[in-house]
Write a structure and sequence with these properties.
alpha/beta; 13 helices; 9-stranded parallel sheet
Length: 349
């Protein structure tokens, strides 16, 4: 059974919460068992969706593709690495079933038309377009035609390229979320670009998302305060895991903190406080924490109160400390005891 929580991804037109996506990408390093472990970890942390990447080496790469970072000693080329990251159709179906059973929406970014066809048969909650695929308009066309939300990462593109991709999605009536994404691993704070979220929303009148590669929870929490619809972060089982994305990933514990934080922020934003009602609602606490005017010594009836005769102490059950100056010079209508909060009746009219 998939998640019943109404987030943007499974309810783009209704009232919804922000969708938190745990991006596995190639963190499984080609291990099917590890890929399944990531599904359980994402669910346990409270994510709404889990996302992989579907690579078919022959369809997307060639021997000419360079390494972004040469991290693997077992793969002679980037092509060899993509081939090692492949899963069979049956294995992809198994991952999808596992995500359903864990209550997660299932996503995987395709990197070829063949991968799009494979994911159509598997079933995805939406189509996440990687930053490097935003100009691959034939592939984008196939995703948009397939139906479902389109989640468009924009990490390497100027607005002119984003415009064309948005037009393709809109032509097929796809619900659209445009992502601010910084293609630096890890992304420093000055490169996050929270300001771009508002620019994207205004330019495309669409949902917006943040695909964060900072390796921290901070950008996503900050973005949540802007009411964005989707957050995507890379997930690692630990900082000691192998792979190029570990430095740009959050741990399972950090993902859990992020998910709780996003829901906390949403609750705050949905619960405006009427400051005019605060005092009335806090009346019992005011008596405990506020202070009253109290005598510094026992005083007899008829005494004229001098500044040294009074001070302020808890509890706040008597004349408020804010009225301290108005008590000075008044005449006592009756005797008062040291440290006992003074009442209005104690004073002559």
């Amino acid at each position: 059974m998939t998640s019943e929580k109404r987030t943007w991804l499974n309810d783009p037109k209704g009232a919804q919460a922000c969708t938190v996506i745990a991006e596995v990408a190639q963190a499984h390093d080609g291990s099917l068992g590890l890929a399944h472990a990531y599904i359980d970890a994402a669910a346990l942390a409270g994510a709404d969706a889990v996302k992989f990447q579907t690579h078919i080496a022959e369809a997307e790469s060639s021997s000419l593709e360079p390494w972004r970072t040469k991290f693997s000693t077992q793969d002679d080329s980037r092509f060899d690495y993509w081939r090692r990251m492949e899963f069979s159709p049956e294995q992809w179906h198994g991952l999808k079933r596992h995500a359903d059973e864990a209550g997660l929406m299932f996503l995987s970014s395709p990197f070829s038309l063949e991968a799009v066809g494979l994911l159509k048969s598997v079933g995805v909650a939406g189509w996440k377009v990687a930053s490097g695929e935003i100009t691959n308009l034939p592939m984008l066309e196939e995703m948009a035609k397939a139906g479902g939300p389109v989640l468009l990462s924009t990490g390497m593109s100027p607005f002119t390229e984003i415009d064309r991709a948005v037009e393709v999605a809109r032509r097929h009536g796809s619900p659209l979320a445009v992502f601010q994404c910084t293609t630096q691993y890890p992304s420093p704070p000055e490169a996050i670009g929270l300001n771009v979220l508002g620019e994207l929303r205004a330019r495309y009148n669409s949902a917006v998302g943040l695909s964060d590669h900072s390796g921290t929870v901070f950008p996503s929490l900050a973005a949540a305060t802007q009411g964005i619809e989707v957050i995507e972060v890379h997930l690692t089982l630990s900082r000691e895991m192998f792979g190029p994305d570990v430095v740009a990933s959050v741990t399972c514990e950090e993902l859990a903190t992020l998910c709780r934080g996003v829901r906390f922020i949403e609750c705050m934003q949905a619960s405006p406080v009427d400051k005019t009602q605060v005092a009335a609602a806090a009346a019992p606490l005011r008596e405990i924490f506020l202070k009253s005017v109290v005598p510094t010594r026992d005083l007899a009836a008829g005494s004229v109160i001098e500044p040294t005769d009074i001070t302020t102490k808890k509890p706040g059950t008597g004349i408020p400390a804010s009225d301290f100056d108005t008590v000075i010079g008044r005449v006592l209508a009756r005797g008062v005891k040291k440290d006992v909060p003074m009442l209005t009746e104690d004073l002559e009219v």
